[in-house]
Amino acid sequence: MRLQEYFLLPGPTNVPNNVLRSMAAPMINHRGPAFQEILEAITEKSKKVFKTKHEVFTLTASGTGGLEAAVVNFINPGEKVIVASIGNFGERFEKIAKQYDADVEFIDFGWGNAIDPEVLEERLAKDVNHEIKAILCQHNETSTAVVNPIKAVSEARKGHPALLIVDTVSGLGAAEFDMDGWNVDVAIAGSQKAFMAPPGLAFLAANERAMKKAETCTNHKFYFNLLEARKWLEKGQTPFTPAISVFYAVEEALRYFDEVGVDAVVRDHYRHRDLVRTGLKAMGLELLIKDDAIASPAVTAVKCPEGIDPAKLRKLLLEKFNIVIAGGQGKFSTSTFRVGHLGAVQDMDLIAAISGLEMVLKIMGADISLGQGVRAMEEALLAE
Ligand SMILES: *Cc1c(COP(=O)(O)O)cnc(C)c1O
């Protein structure tokens, strides 16, 4: 028998029991009134999470499908775009854009850093003929556990008309985001992150400027044609058969967002971030991101102590204590691990994770005194 794990990944995330149960309902006609009701509820409620009045498309795809949908609907082949990258998912955005023949200017701000809006501002100011048609970037870079200053990135455009296309797959619902207030043109999220639902749906929000571009965009597409999706959405349907069970789940999860409000959900993520960082620091571990101002509220990356293999550490955590955390990514894969605090996570899950980490590191021979991290977290909670 497999007992429920302490499940601390930056996606997929823990799915609450009521959300799990909602999926055990029978199939319905995706061209009938019951599905229309669900689609409309999800569309309206997800708009509140994005903080947008514009279109939100719910696509049956993983988050990457949502990124691909953005590229094929808003970027023409041969068009110049900037990919502002700070890690693995920035590099993924570059690959997708290149695959669809965009002329990509890759600006690497470095793994572990956030985007410097001044660098973007200078670059865009030089583009007097407005050849750059879009800026692609991450809101929350999951690989390095950094959150980007999207409001400042948007403002860095000044009068430049480039579309701002933001991958907020692991950011939305965890880090502060205000699509319309910040003038973000396109934003993409996914069901398996802060939405507390299983993988399977991507959400793509697009404003009128972006949809106008879509109307003339000639890039190749079939499944992800948003103009088709818009026509069907008006009828309360999707162009193709949707992942109906995941729709059930997201509808149920969004009830929670609606009840407590997205701002409260986001605040909780920052609380959990601070709690985890407090515990890790008190253990004497080194955080990959030292600057609180850019530290992700969805996931925390930690440097493994000298001589400790993060893969072995994670294996032991799972075997001994049923705790699941994430490995490092890319160039940090052999030197870091990541603790997710995204979605339905409770204070005590995080205390359990830190307690497990203390014990496993001790077993592995690291210089750790038991209880330091846990004590600091308990004190932080009592001081709230
Ligand atoms: C999880 C994630 C994605 C999407 O990944 P999928 O596996 O395709 O769902 C995209 N961007 C970021 C920043 C992510 O964290």
Structural features, described:
The chain has 384 residues and is an alpha/beta fold. The protein is built from 13 helices and 14 strands. It has helices at residues 17-22, 33-50, 63-74, 88-99, 117-126, 150-155, 208-216, 226-234, 244-260, 262-282, 310-321, 347-363, 372-382; strands at residues 6-8, 55-60, 80-85, 103-108, 132-138, 140-141, 146-147, 163-167, 186-190, 201-206, 286-287, 299-303, 323-327, 336-340. It has a seven-stranded mixed beta sheet with strand order 2-10-9-8-5-3-4, sandwiched between helices. The two termini are 38 Å apart. The protein binds pyridoxal-5'-phosphate. Residues 11, 62-64, 89, 138, 140, 142, 167, 169-170, 190 line the site of pyridoxal-5'-phosphate.
Roughly what fraction of the amino acids lie in strands?
Answer: 15-25%
- What's the count of strands? 14
Provide a count of the helices: 13
Give me the strand/helix succession: EHHEHEHEHEEEHEEEHHHHEEHEEHH
Bound compounds: pyridoxal-5'-phosphate
Q: Can you list the strand order of the major beta sheet?
A: 2-10-9-8-5-3-4
Evaluate the radius of gyration: 21 Å
Structural class: alpha/beta
Please provide a brief summary of the model.
The chain has 384 residues and is α/β, with parallel strands linked by helices. Helix content is 42%, strand content 17%. A 7-stranded mixed beta sheet has the order 2-10-9-8-5-3-4, with helices on both faces. Strands 1-13-14-12-11 form a 5-stranded mixed beta sheet, sandwiched between helices.
Task: Set down the secondary structure blueprint.
Elements: E1 6-8, H1 17-22, H2 33-50, E2 55-60, H3 63-74, E3 80-85, H4 88-99, E4 103-108, H5 117-126, E5 132-138, E6 140-141, E7 146-147, H6 150-155, E8 163-167, E9 186-190, E10 201-206, H7 208-216, H8 226-234, H9 244-260, H10 262-282, E11 286-287, E12 299-303, H11 310-321, E13 323-327, E14 336-340, H12 347-363, H13 372-382
Parallel strand pairs: 1-13, 3-4, 3-5, 5-8, 8-9
Antiparallel strand pairs: 2-10, 6-7, 9-10, 11-12, 12-14, 13-14
Helix pairs in contact: 2-9, 10-12, 10-13, 11-12, 12-13
This protein binds pyridoxal-5'-phosphate (PLP).
Pyridoxal-5'-phosphate binds next to helix 3.
